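Exercise: predict the fold of this chain.
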Amino acid sequence: MGFLGQPIRGSNGAEAVPETGGDVTGVTITNAGTGGVDGPYNNTPAIGGSGTGLTIDVTILGNVISVAAINAAGTDYITGDVVTVDVGGITAEVLTLAVSPIIPAVASSPTTGSYLLPRSIVNPYYG
């Protein structure tokens, strides 16, 4: 929504497409779990969040997850998503710290030649 709750529209009258999430570029452990079996666990699927396809390499040391690193970034995640990893006898939580934005394709009107810009370009300070 734009000013006073009105949709943002291009000069062709079409409503701007809301931006979506993106690929995860940073994670941190928010709940390291307890009682796990020490060792490395690669390509662990992330459960939950707004996107799909995120996998995380984790290391369990001292029966807790001590390291979490991105294996596959997934798509459509939003910064602040909390995902769960279930590995080595532990269920732990990982927070997405950063997501690379995906800017939707810019559409043009064949009749007017005007362009419809995505929300993130029209107003980068909005949501």
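Check your answer against the key: Residues 104-109, 113-127 have pLDDT under 50 and may be disordered.
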